[in-house]
Amino acid sequence: MERWQNLLATLSELARAVRCCHQEDLCGEGITFVQFTIMNFIQGRGTVPLAELHRALEVDKSTTTRLLAPLVRRGLVVKRKSPADARTLEVCLSEEGQRRWERSWACLQGFLQAVDTRLPADRREQVYEDVRLYVQALRAACGACRCGACE
Questions:
Q1: pLDDT digits (tens, 9 = 90+) for 132-143
Q2: Which among 92, 89, 70 is positioned nearest to 80, based on CA atoms?
Q3: Three-class SS of residue 151?
Q4: Any bridge partners for residue 78, and if so which?
Q5: Pairwise CA distance, residues 75 & 79, whole Å
């Protein structure tokens, strides 16, 4: 039982530590971390079919639409019919969206570097690999969970 209490305490600490990534105004650009994540996915690919963005976010289609709507409304993301297939919607960053992404990315790189330098240099890569492994285990356990805690 003590092991599971320790694990729960570690998960709680992790959740509190990453809360900084869910600010309403990331790097003073007026976008949230989730919105930046969406913009970052789009930026790395240029133009993205909406179905591909939905798969990447791993949420319901309605949630993808809800998350994307403020970015479209504010003119940071453009949503349009695909020239190749009018039945397909695609998204891309607007010029202003690209500028905001660049400024936010510069800010985030500074943050990530600050985190990186706080890890022992000889253990950094192992820590990152262990975190990736832990995330995979969490996802697998949530996928198999039938207790309702992961819903």
A1: 998 888 888 887
A2: 89
A3: coil
A4: 92
A5: 10
Residues of the chain with pLDDT under 50: none
Q: What is the Cα–Cα distance from 115 to 121, expressed in whole angstroms? A: 11
Rounded-to-integer distance, Cα 49 and Cα 119, Å: 38
- With respect to residue 95, please indicate whether it lies within any of the assigned structural domains: yes
Distance CA 151, CA 148 (A): 5
- The residue whose two tokens read 């949530």 is 142
Full residue range of the structural domain in which residue 26 is found: 21-118
Cβ-Cβ contacts under 8 Å for 87 (sequence gap 6 or more): 81
Q: Are 88 and 49 in contact (CB under 8 A)?
A: yes
Same domain, 130 and 66: no
